[in-house]
Amino acid sequence: MARSPTHQQEALELAITIFDSLPPAEKARQLANPEGEIGLAVAEFLNGNNRSANTSNLARLGLTAGQRVLEIGFGNGRAAADVLASSDKVQYAGIDISPTMVAEAVRFNAPSVAAGRATFHLGAADQMPFPDASFYAIFSSGVIHFWPDPDPSLRDLHRVLRPGGLSVHSCIDPRTAPPFALAEPGFHLRPAAEWDRLFRAAGFAEVAAEAVERDQLNSDGTPTKRYSVRVTARA
Questions:
Q1: What is the pLDDT of residue 1?
Q2: Which CATH superfamily hosts domain 50-234?
């Protein structure tokens, strides 16, 4: 059952409190691979922080009836409902490295899973369990900056995307990165120009990488403006 706006706000405030209490290395670890009860809270924090990016990315995909869509790193699975509501008979698939997130996403989206409209898979982006040219569109928010060597994952994204299909990804821009987003705990931040080069090297024919100003939350819950990098790439 859907939560009321009041309960949603209370859940987000609690998630922010829990996230803010974590030391920097644990913040980074849980953001990369949310686990256990803390992971569920971190995923709620991420859901609030990534909502505008997901909305923008889905709008760019321009989904139409019957298309198959893949989300990389779906977290707690809240974006799946937006994908399924975007157009008639859209099919959603997601892949994530966290067993905690797979279980939570399946639980939250149980009716769509039962109806065969959504599937959630445990796995990594560099070895995805999907046939070639499986999807019309692929998207992610806050994922690709965790890849130390993006090339294997980008090539697998290109493999499962249909010719002419669209891929849209948002990640942290190093210019306004939060204090915990450091290389040592697992962040690999790159400017837009570097992402442009990496996507082209992986085989994408049309690539546009740009810096986008977004409203986000600090770990203490106060609003802030940060830049993210948005990469739009067509196979």
A1: 44
A2: Vaccinia Virus protein VP39 (3.40.50.150)
